Amino acid sequence: MPRRQGLMPDERPVGRWRTGLNSKMKNTTRCAGRASLASSIALAILSSPAIGQDATVQYLANEGVMVTSGDSKVLFDPLFDNGFRTYQMVPDDVRSAIFAGEAPYDGVDAIFVSHFHGDHFSAADVLRLMRAQPSIHLYAPAQATAAIREIATADDQAVLDRMTGLDLEYGDAPVHISAGELSIDAAFVPHSGWPTRRTEVQNIAFRVRFADDGTVLHLGDADARSIHFEADADYWEQQAIDVALPPYWFFESEDGVEILEFRLDVMHAIGIHVPDELVDPGRRSEALLGEDLFTRPGEGRRF
């Protein structure tokens, strides 16, 4: 069913693993009119009477999202420079607002980068943002932080000191990091195409728990095979996940659905990395029909 413009409740069917949370989820979609996209998002957030008690996840583009919970605000895969003529790009006014630290992108605590591919990460853009916003910390695979170090200058030591590079490989144990009000867990999950393609890519799944107890899981371009989650079953089961952000292909495979239903304690899942051609529901596979997908920059959910 085509979506109407403006703020509206999420009317899409609840998936099999989405028990409990979906009744509290609401769209905070882009307002119609002449206002810029960044202003529309700010209006959607600030006009909500319950925002002081809720957390929100806002879609930027592709796998880029902003999550706000209490006093904490983080960005996942927010700055990239190549959509490969397939994936949506972050709108120019949103990029400008992120760099300038304008609401609602002010007060960002951390950036998480899943992997170093051009449709998820731009070393130049992340370096530019961290130069402009000295309170932001970066958590990313070592491949991504190495790319930043290659273009950094002698004046960028303060930026480099705020980077945490995760040099994880397949089979390594997940890593835990405490960072103020954020509790961060990082696990290596192979990039899609495993075991024959992209095996050299460090794809990190970040599970972030906020001080208000909300937990979000961003899976990057994870390969949707159960075997990747079996070895660390205790790790994946130890923390309930309010919102999981898997790439859309998880909904299209038996293993992907099994991971979300049984391997992870997920209350609600929203598919990301949706190509332009699938923005139109009429072009989606049967497996995707009824699933919750981020497809329009500026839309969001409250949880």
How is the secondary structure organized here?
Layout: E1 8-9, E2 26-27, H1 37-46, E3 55-61, E4 64-69, E5 72-76, H2 92-100, E6 110-112, H3 123-132, E7 137-141, H4 142-151, H5 157-160, E8 163-166, E9 175-179, E10 182-188, E11 204-209, E12 215-218, H6 227-230, H7 233-237, E13 243-245, H8 254-263, E14 300-302
Parallel strand pairs: 5-6, 6-7, 7-8, 12-13
Antiparallel strand pairs: 1-2, 3-4, 3-14, 4-5, 9-10, 10-11, 11-12
Please explain how this structure is put together:
- The structure is a single chain.
- α3 packs across α4.
- The chain has one domain: Metallo-beta-lactamase, Chain A, CATH 3.60.15.
- The model is unreliable at 1-53 (pLDDT under 50).
- With 303 residues, it is an alpha/beta fold.
- The strands form three sheets. A seven-stranded mixed β-sheet has the order 8-7-6-5-4-3-14.
- It is globular and about 50 Å long.
- The protein is 20% helix and 20% strand.
- The chain has helices at residues 37-46, 92-100, 123-132, 142-151, 157-160, 227-230, 233-237, 254-263, and strands at 8-9, 26-27, 55-61, 64-69, 72-76, 110-112, 137-141, 163-166, 175-179, 182-188, 204-209, 215-218, 243-245, 300-302.
- The protein contains eight helices and 14 strands.
